[in-house]
Amino acid sequence: MTNEKLTNYIHGQWSCSPDVEYVNVMNPATGEIIAQVPLSAKSEVDKAVIAAKQAQKEWALVPAPQRAEILYKVGIMLMEEKERIAQLLTMENGKVIEEARGEVQEGIDMAFYMAGEGRRLIGQTTPSELKDKFAMSIRAPVGVVGIITPWNFPIAIATWKSFPAIVAGNAVIWKPATETPLMAFELARIFEKAGLPKGVLNIVFGSGSTVGNAMVEQEGIRVISFTGSNDVGRKIAEACGRNLKKVSLEMGGKNAVIVMDDADLDLAVEGIVWSAFGTSGQRCTACSRVIVHEKVKTQLEERLLTEMKKLTTGNGLDEDVRVGPIINQASLNKIKSCIDIGIDEGATLKAGGYVIDEGEHAKGFYFAPTLFTNVLPTMRIAQEEIFGPVVSMIEVRSFAEAIEVNNQVTYGLSSSIFTKDVNLVFAAQRDLDTGIVYVNAGTTGAEIHLPFGGTKGTGNGHRDSGVAALDVFTEWKSIYVDFSGKLQRAQIDT
User: Fold this and answer.
1) What is the pTM of this model?
2) Number of domains the chain is built from
3) Residues 259-297 pLDDT 10s
4) Which of 240, 284, 287, 338 is catalytic?
């Protein structure tokens, strides 16, 4: 679906207020308008909450294995439509088609994984301290959950959040990013075909300041799961705290690849290029820093520059393109300002650092893959998230210094080390202060069956993906069954 006006999806109906304002959805590779998305009012969120609360009561009574059957069907339909959806994803997001296919595959994997949880949703049984008494804990749905997703992974992140919420017996209200609404339309359409009851999934398009805030403040929504910037995440956490509402935050990263002096440099370069310039650096897990041992700094720099010259930048629908566009002009401007900051700080610009705006790139938003060297750990370009194809190389003299440099940023999402020393591998996985650690691989490539998230400024302790995702969308309920036929008092009658 392109070149059409999208509408909200509430209680199984596609509709919008007749006086709603629309904004254009633009293909960042070409500047072409591919759809229009509504900027909904708070009243649309209120309508969605009414529908979701009604639907959730019945949905929670459906046996979890039957709820899971819907997810199995969704996974199969995503498989059948993978290529078409990937093409649409590239059109609205810009990432190269290979990555778009991978993102849709991530949704497929999550569908099957979380469907499996429909026959588990594991609680605990424990011995009671009293005779003829049984003790157990079970997972109970929270009720209505709100998910707020970003533009850089418009379908994958939505599946990380909505699939565990739905299989656990919740109803969902989803606010997608206005830059990438087509994936929301496609996923809702698939859920509809799969037989999901009306009102279990609702989509309200709009701005964060209006729709997002309304979701956070709406007392009928008991969980907010948010992926986005730290500034917005902090405000959401404050509001949810006031309202005693559960909140899961997955925010920024300033991820580093550590390259030790015994590393396979060709493999390290391959990992750096993929994790730094894939998605044009617009990933929360993107490699933004390379922390390299002084003994191999020159060799690594030379090899990295050689590989960077081979990168092709352009429309992601071209199978030969390796670096797609930046999402919009505002992001392009921010990246350029970060380049100016790096130069002013005294870092050496070795490659890139400029907007590509000539010829076939003239109507899109393109930035050249960029490398800074001679970067100090305290420089802003080594501390602040850039969210673009920009890498800063930092030289260190030892493993201990590399760990220290990695950890002295406010984020803690992903880290990586290239080494052949097994002792350093185990020390690194212990000492790197990040939620994800890679060994002899880049900083991207998380798999859906393990928890995804980070420490410090990256999040607030919750995780997407894996069994841990269920903790966000369920409450623990402890149950005691006394079959002694008399009143027994715990801690007293033992």
Assistant:
1) 0.96
2) 2
3) 999 999 999 999 999 999 999 999 999 999 999 999 999
4) 284
